[in-house]
Amino acid sequence: MTASSDIYLFADFRFDRASGGLFRRDGPTTFAPVKIGSRALDLLTVLIEQRGFVVSKDEIMAAVWPKMAVEEANLFFQISTLRNILDGQQRGKSCIQTVVGRGYRFIASVTRCTSMPVETVDPTHVGSAARRGDTGPPRLSIVVLPFVSIGDDPEQDYFTDGVTDSLTTDLSRISGTFVIGRSTAFTYKGQAGNLKQIGRDLNVRYVLEGRVQRVGSRMRVNVQLLEAESAGHIWAERFEKPVANLFDMQDEIVSRLANALGQELVHAEAKRAECATNPDSIDHYFLGQAMAQRGHTVAILDKARFHYDRALELEPDNVDALVARSWIDLELAGNWLSENRRERLISAEAYVEKALKLNPDSAAAHLALGFVQMYRKRAAQAIAEFERALAINRNCAIAHAFIGFAKLLLGRSDEIEAHVLEAFRFSPRDSTAWVWVLYVGLGQFYQGRDEGALERFNRSKELNPNSPVNRFCLAAALAHLDRLEEAREAARTCLQLNPSFTIARFRSQTNSDNPVYLAGRERMYEGLRKAGMPEG
Asked: Are residues 418 and 535 in the same domain?
C-alpha cells in the first residue's frame, strides 16, 4: 500500500482526495465504496480542506463550477446530495453546517492520515464488483503519468506539465472514470517505473504516457494508452502542430486526447465485459455502447437496447445507462425506424428526465434532452441544452455538431459547416463523425448545392455503411444530378437497411416549421421520388 497525506477519516467515512474516492466503513478494518457524483466530490474537497471555517457560496461555486455560470440551485442540490450520503437518517448531526447568510462549514472531526490505515474494499462501482468479490482495479481507472519533455527548453517543460495536468482534469469529466490525482501522478516524474507495479500501487487498470519534442518550428506529441497489468499496448496517437501559441495548442491537444481516450476506454471495457462470466450493470452498459457504435439499423439498435435494459434491471439508477437507453428511442424516432414516433419521444424524455434528476450535471443527458427538444420542433431550446453540455464538459465535441444541425432546422444551413469543423477540431476521429459529415451534406443539399452534398453523403456512407439515413440522402442528391441508375441503387440499399422507409413516413416526421427548412425538405421528397423510393 502506498503512503498518502491526502486521506481523511471522519465519522464512518474515509475520503481519499488523491484518487477522488469516498468510502464508508464496512467492518472493523474495511471500507466499501460510496456511489457519489463528481460535483459532490468536488464540494466535499472544498469543505474538508477548509474544515472548521465558513466557506462562502461564491468560493464554493468558483471551485466546483470553475468558469461556468450556474444557478445557486445546483449548489443547493449538491449540498443536499452530500448531506444525504454523509448523514443518512441522522437528524441534527450533519457534518455540514449551514451558516445563514454566509455559507457552509464542515464541522465533523477529521483525522488526516499519512498512510493507508485500513484494508479497503475495491473502489469499483457499488453493487457490482463488490458483489462479485472482485478486488481488481476500478473500471475506467487511469493514471496520466507526467509527460516526458525531450529537450532543454524551459517553456516546453511548462507546456509538457500543462498537458499532463489539464488531461488529468479533463479525463475526470468522462462519466464513470476513476482518475488518479495530479499530485500523486507527479511523484513518478522522471522515473522509469514498472507499469505493472504502478498499476498495483495506484490500483488502476490503465496508464497513459507521453513524450513531447520540439522539432524546429513544430511541436510533436506522442501518447500511448497501456493496460497496467500486462503492459499491453491499447492505443497510440501522434500530434504535430506549428509552435504558434503553446497554450492554445495545449488546449486543442488535451481536448482531442480526452475525446479519443473516452472512446478507446469504452472499447477496452467492452472487451473485458465480453469475457465476464457474470456481467453486471456496468458490463452491460459498455456492451451496449460497443454495439450501438456499429450502425443504426433496427437489428443493431435492438441488440444495444437489450444490454441497456439489462443494465437498468440490475441498477435502475445507472445514469449512463438511462441516457444511453434514451438514445435508442431517439434513434428510432429520428431515423424513421419506428411507426410510433410519439411514443418513442415520450420514452426518451422519461429516461432523460430521470437521469437529470439523479445527476443534473450530466453533459450526455443534456445532449439527449437537446435532441428531444429538436424532435419537438424546439430548435432554439435544443441549442441551449447543447450549450449547457459544453459548459459542463468543454470537450463535448458532438455538441458543436448538434448545434449545427439545430441551425438547419432554423433555416440557417449556411452556418452548419463552421460548427461541424469545430467538432472535428476537438475530436477528428470521433465514432459519430459520419453523422457530422451528414449534417454538412444536408446543409449543402438544402442550399441546392448537390455536388457538394453528394461528396459529403458518400463520405458519411464510407464512415458508416450500416446507416439507412445517409443512403436515402445519397439517393436524393444523385437523383437531382440526374444520375438515376446510381440513385435507384442507393434507394435499394436504403430499403435493405430500413425496409419500412417511405416518403410518407419521412414527410410525417418533420422537426421544424421554418419555411426555409421545409423548402429543403421538398427538394428531398422530389429527389426520393425520382430515385424510386416508395411513396407510402
From this structure: yes
Domain edge (last residue) among 71, 93, 121 = 121
Place of cell 434528476: 357
Quick one: 404 exposed, middle or buried, by C-beta within 10 A (0-12, 13-18, 19+)?
buried
Residue 235 cell numbers, joined: 492505443
Quick one: cell of 332? Answer: 428510432
Is residue 510 situated within a structural domain? yes
| Same domain as 460, residue 430 | yes
Counted domains in the chain: 4
DSSP letter, residue 235? E
Burial of 277 (0-12, 13-18, 19+ CB in 10 A): exposed
Partners of residue 22 on adjacent β-strands: 15
> What's the pTM?
0.65
CATH at residue 356: 1.25.40.10
Of 254, 274, 294, which one is at a domain's C-terminal end?
A: 274
List the chain pLDDT tens, one digit each, 536 residues.
Answer: 333 456 888 888 888 876 667 888 766 556 778 878 778 888 998 898 888 888 888 889 888 888 777 677 778 778 877 888 887 645 456 888 888 778 888 888 887 764 443 333 333 333 333 333 344 677 788 888 988 888 777 667 777 888 888 888 777 777 777 788 777 788 888 777 788 888 888 888 889 898 888 877 788 888 888 888 888 888 888 878 777 766 667 777 788 888 888 788 878 888 888 877 778 888 899 899 888 888 778 888 999 999 999 999 988 988 989 999 999 999 888 777 877 888 999 999 999 999 999 888 888 999 999 999 999 999 999 999 999 998 888 888 899 999 999 999 999 999 999 999 999 888 877 888 999 999 999 999 999 999 999 999 999 999 999 889 999 999 999 999 999 999 999 999 999 999 989 999 898 888 999 999 999 999 999 999 999 999 98
Domain extent at residue 178: 141-274
Residues 535 and 417 in one domain: yes
Distances (CA, A) of 97 to 10, 105, 208: 15, 5, 40
Cell of 434: 459520419
Residue 406 counted as domain residue = no
Are residues 325 and 308 in contact, defined by beta-carbon separation less than 8 angstroms? Answer: yes
DSSP annotation of 230 reads T
Exposed/middle/buried for residue 31 (C-beta within 10 Å: 0-12, 13-18, 19+): buried
